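INFO batch 0412 | record 1 of 1 | parsing
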Amino acid sequence: MDQDNLSVVVHSAGNLRLENRPVPQPGPNEVLLRMHSVGICGSDVHYWQHGRIGDFVLKKPMVLGHEASGQVLKVGSAVEHLKPGDRVAIEPGVPREIDEFCKNGRYNLSPTIFFCATPPDDGNLCRYYVHNGNFCYKLPDNVTYEEGALIEPLSVGIHACRRAGVTLGSTVFVCGAGPIGLVSLLVAKAMGASQVVISDLSADRLKKAKELGADFAVQVQREAPQELAQKVEGLLGCMPEITIECTGAESCIQTGIYATRSGGVVVLVGLGPEMVNVPLVNAAVREVDIRGIFRYCNTWPMAIAMLASKKVDVKPLVTHRFPLEQALEAFETTRKGLGVKVMLKCDKSDQNP
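INFO prediction complete | emitting C-alpha cells
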C-alpha cells in the first residue's frame, strides 16, 4: 500500500484544495478502505462555495465526499462480518451514542451523529479512509462500485418514499429533476407508484426523467403555483396523492401543497431558506400532511436488494467521471450544473465503474 492519501479538502468558502494526508489506521470497530468511487453532492459544492449549510459551519479544513464505495484493506480486531478484499458501500451517518433516537430506530435524528463531510467530520473523498464497520455494507458481485456509491442519494429517495407512504397504485408528483428528484422517481416507481409526474426548469433533466420512467414531465415556465398545480392535475387526470418536493424553492413548495389531493402527503426533501411562505391553511383545511425528511435511516439493505435484483437502475445517473487528481475540474463541472451525477475515481489501479 502506498502512502499517497490524496484528499479533497475545503479550507474555507471558495478555497478547495487537493492535499496529501496521512493514511489512517482502523480502531477495533473500524475498517480501512481503499476508496473507489465517490459522487459529488450539491452539499459538497455548497460547503466549497459558502463554507456553511444552515447551522453546520466550516471552522477548520474538512475532507469532502459522502456518496462512496471502496474495498476493505484492513479490519479492526472487533469486526467480524467483513474481511480484506470485500467491496462495500458506505453509510456516512454513524451514531456516536445510543440515545432515544437510536433506540427507536431513527438514528438519523441523533443530534450527536457523525456524518461524513458535515462540519467538523471529515468525508471520504480521498484514497484511504477509515469508517465504522457496522456502517459498511458488502456489495453483491453484480452491483458495481458506482452503484454502491449511488446508494447514498438513492437512500434519500427511499426515505422520502417511505415517509410519503408510496405504495402500489400511488400517484406521485416529484418537484425537481436533479439527482434527488430522479432517485425519488426511480424509488416511487419501484415501490409501485402507477403514475409519476415530474417538473423542472431544465428540458435536459426532464428528458433524463422520461428515460428513467417518468410518465409525464412538466417544464416549469413562469406560471403561478396554482397554475402549475392545475397542469399536474390535467396530466394525471386527478390530483396526486403524494408530492415529493426536491428543490427547496418557495414557489415549488407552494405548488406542491396546491397540487396534492385532500388527505394526501407532501414530503419536503429539498432545503432552501429557513423561512418560507406557504399556503398552510390550504393544507390544513384539506388535511394535507406536510412531512420533512433528514437524510435517511435503515435504507442501505433495501437499496442493495433493489440494485442486486435489478428493480432499480441508477447507472444512467452518472454522466461524468474524473480521476481523483482532477477533482477541482470535477467540482467545477458540478457547480455549473452540467450533466446529472459527477463521479470521482479514487483508485489509481482501477478506474472502472
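INFO post-check: The radius of gyration is 20 Å.
INFO record closed
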